[in-house]
Amino acid sequence: MDTADNAFDRITVDPATMNGQPCIRGLRVTVRRVLEALGTYASRDELRADYPELEEEDIRQALAYAAAIVGDETADLTTAS
After folding, report:
1. Which architecture, in CATH terms, is 11-70?
2. Could you please report the per-residue DSSP string of 3-59?
């Protein structure tokens, strides 16, 4: 993942914060939590009501960061239980 152009300047990784998980601007809000919340809340306005510290650019970068991490990997979702 190339971050040389500061495409993810709001994503921070610090071993002392949330065990080094990627976070939003050094806050104790992980990229993963933002993605989970986007899948749970009916709207971004609802999400921001519960997480007022999040800005629209934080959400955009969390989505872009996740897309960059996933890349072109595939997962078999047809596994029988």
Report:
1. Orthogonal Bundle (1.10)
2. -TT-TTTTEE--TTSGGG--EETTSS-BHHHHHHHHHHSSSHHHHHHH-TT--HHHH
